[in-house]
Amino acid sequence: MRATARGWTAVWLVVLALVQAAAFVAVWRVAVHTEIGQWVDTVALTGNRIGQDAIDGPVNRILNAMSVVSLLAATAMIGFIALIRGRIALAITATLLIAGANLSTQLLKHGLSRPDYGIDPDRVAVGNSLPSGHTTVAASVAVALVLVLPARVRAVSAFLAAGYAAVAGVATLSAGWHRPSDAVAAYLVVGVWAAMAGLVLLITQREQAEVAPGDAHRLAALVLGIGGVLALVACGFALAWLVDLRDTGPEDLTRRPLFVGYAGSAAGIAGTMAVVMALVLTVVHRLVPRVKG
Question: Mind telling me which residue stretches traverse the membrane in this protein (predicted)?
Fold first, then answer.
C-alpha cells in the first residue's frame, strides 16, 4: 500500500478504537450507575421468562458449549488457518485479539463497581456482571475468524460469525445469565481489541503489499451496518416507550412491557454486534491484503 493509504487506515483504526471505548464507558455509566439504566436492564432480564420453556434447551446448549476448552480449540483452529495461509503475523495477532479481549472482560467484570439502587434485590449478591464473558468468547472468535479466512469467503463468514455472536449474546439474556448491557459491552470490548489488532497488522505489513479493491466487500459491510443501525433504532424506540413506566417495579409490570423490554434489548444486542462486524469488514481487506508482497 502507499504510505498515504496506510496512514489513513491507521487513523481510521485509532478512531474506531476510541469511539468504541467511549461507547463502552457510556454503556457502563448509564446501565450500571443510573437508576433508570438498572431498571431497564432488570425489566429486560425479567422479561426473559416469556416463552422461556420453549427455548430453554437450545439456549443452554449454546451457552454450555462455550468453555475454556472450546475457546482454546477455537483459538488453535484460527491460528492454524492463518499459518496454513503463510500468515505468521496474522496467526499471532488473531490469537492476541482473542486472549486480550477475554482477559480484559474478566478484569473489567471484577474491577468495575455496581451500586445498589434497590431495583434488582435478587441479584445484589452477584455484583457487577458487565461485560459478559460468554458473549466476549463468541464475539472474539467470530471477529478473529473473519480476519484469518481468505477474502473469497470473508463476506459470507462475516454474516455467519456475526449471527453466531449475536445469538450467543441474546442467549445470555434468555437464560437469565446476563443483563443486555453486559452483552453490548462485551461486543465493544471486542471491537476495541479488533481495532488494536488491526494496527498491529498494519505495522507488521510489508511496504510492497498490494490490496485488491475487489476484496473490500463494501456491499456486505453496508448491509450489516444498516441492519445493525435499524436494530439499534428499534431498540431505542422500544426502550423509550418503556421508560414511561419507570415508576413501576419490574416484577409488577404486565406481560406487554416485559416483552417490549426483552425484545427491544435483544434487538440492541444483535444490532451492536452487526455494527461491530460491519466496521471490521470495512477495513480488513487493507489489513490482510491478498498479495503480501
Answer: 62-81, 88-108, 128-149, 156-178, 184-204, 216-242, 262-284
Mean pLDDT of 45-59: 78
> Would you state the pLDDT for residue 291?
65
Quote the pLDDT of residue 154: 94
Rounded CA separation 185/201 (Å): 24
d(CA 199, CA 216): 18
SS3 annotation, the chain: CCHHHHHHHHHHHHHHHHHHHHHHHHHHHHHHHCHHHHHHHHHHHHHHHCCHHHHHHHHHHHHHCCCHHHHHHHHHHHHHHHHHCCCHHHHHHHHHHHHHHHHHHHHHHHHCCCCCCCCCHHHHHHCCCCCCHHHHHHHHHHHHHHHHCCHHHHHHHHHHHHHHHHHHHHHHHHCCCCCHHHHHHHHHHHHHHHHHHHHHHHHHCCCCCECCHHHCCHHHHHHHHHHHHHHHHHHHHHHHHHHCCCCCCHHHCCHHHHHHHHHHHHHHHHHHHHHHHHHHHHHHHHHCCCECC
Tell me the C-alpha distance between 140 and 62, whole Å.
Answer: 16
Which pLDDT does position 26 carry in this prediction?
97
Cell digits for 292?
503480501
Domain definitions of the chain by residue range = 3-287
